[in-house]
Amino acid sequence: MARKPTDKQLFKLKNEWLGQFYDKVTPKEFYRAMFPEGCFERKGCPEDSKSNGVITVIEGEKARNYLVFDDLDTIDEVQGAEFAIISPVGYCGRNRTAKNARWLYGIAIDLDGVEMPQIRDVFYQMKNEVIPQCTYCVNSGHGLHLYYLFEKPIPLYKHLHDSLREFKYELICRIWNRYTSTYTERDQVQYQGVFQGFRIVGTQSKLGKRYIVTAFETGKRVTIEYLNQFVDKDKAIEKLEYQPQIGLEKAKAKYPDWYERRVVRGESKGRWHIKRDLYDWWIRKIKNSKVTVGHRYWCLSVLAAYGIKCDIPEDEVLSDALELLPYMDSLSDDEHNRFTKRDVLDAMNMYQESYVTYSRAEVERVSGISVPANKRNYRKQALHLAGARALQVINDQYNGTNWREGNGRKPKKDIVEQWQVAHPDGRKIDCERETGLSRHTVLKWWK
């Protein structure tokens, strides 16, 4: 019986197989195809008013972002790096956030658990139009990165973010099947959004510095219309045009309460501030659930999102994530698939305000962990709360008590306002230290 090849042997075998049928490309050629000349700002020319690529490099315990200008010289500068990632997105700003995203140049799908039978089947299914033909195939180490580069970049209007994410998830479900991956269980499928970064071609894979991420040109550029053929109709992208917002005059007539709060009184957009019970529950859930190797990164990404959702300081979230590191690393016996501090630091990228609305369904999908909904005895929230309040009134009448005494939300707005009156020249950081309030609470009520 033939011995199963090691991961390093598989990496070389996949390169040899791909090289028989497709042209290997240099890192500069690959990223020039992804980011055509003229799409980025020229170095030293801010008057171009264009977006840029953003590379995240993690060295030791520090993460740093580098801008990619139109000359793509930054791609050359990171060649051979141990951990450097980029997404097929143009950003206005130095950080890879959804808020800064302006243009989507392609969709990249991470297909893990790819051995020689699987890589042959991937391209067999592409040839027979079972799955879409990718523009480039990147040998990333344990798996493949399939890049679908667009004929024309897609503008990342805010109203398109959710639909593009669901669209990519549908493509992942189609591509990741029992013939294309050794990970055959549905909870082993790894979902990533359109802003997800991937290891840069020409840098090290997880297998080490002798095993460089390699790209092959495997097909033509694609359109959304072509990719729509491989997803359900309700997930297809039909319109990419900008949807203008209604004018203030129409908004005043249609949403008078909103107009009074936001325009007249100048109040900032509010959001729910959840008790830290959710955050602590997720840590316990990670420890007590059967986390799969492919979902380790996303479990900590959700921890970061819950951290900002529950107003947990960033340094505390990072400390908790690092405490989970040994457990995450112990989930894999493969010496080339270690979970490191670099993975933790990259997962912390989701400690952003834009992730405070991360849904329960989204958490389940990316983490592979079940998060049951609160059924409230299958009643709607309003009906459930009405019943609970009625019981409180009955209990008060019977016991001669008042359940409201000692309960209710503390007047944090008053605390901040009183502190500002007493310290007219005070800073936000001083208010945080002296009152013990979180940064987000102080920012919310600061005037």
Give the end-to-end Cα distance, rounded to a whole number of Å.
Answer: 74 Å
What form results from the Cα inertia axes?
A: globular
Structural class: alpha+beta
- In round numbers, the mean pLDDT is 86
| Biggest sheet features | 6 strands, antiparallel
> Per DSSP, what share of the residues sits in E-state strands of 2 or more residues?
5-15%
Give a written overview of the molecule.
The protein has 447 residues and is α+β, with helices and mostly antiparallel strands. The protein is built from 17 helices and 12 strands. The strands form 3 sheets. It has a 6-stranded antiparallel β-sheet. A 4-stranded antiparallel β-sheet has the order 3-2-4-9. A hairpin with a 4-residue loop joins strand 7 and strand 8. Helix 10 (296-309) packs antiparallel against helix 11. It is globular. The protein starts with 6 loop residues before the first helix and ends with a helix. The model has no long low-confidence stretch (mean pLDDT 86).
How would you summarize what this structure contains?
40% of the residues lie in helices and 14% in strands. The protein has 447 residues and is α+β, with helices and mostly antiparallel strands.
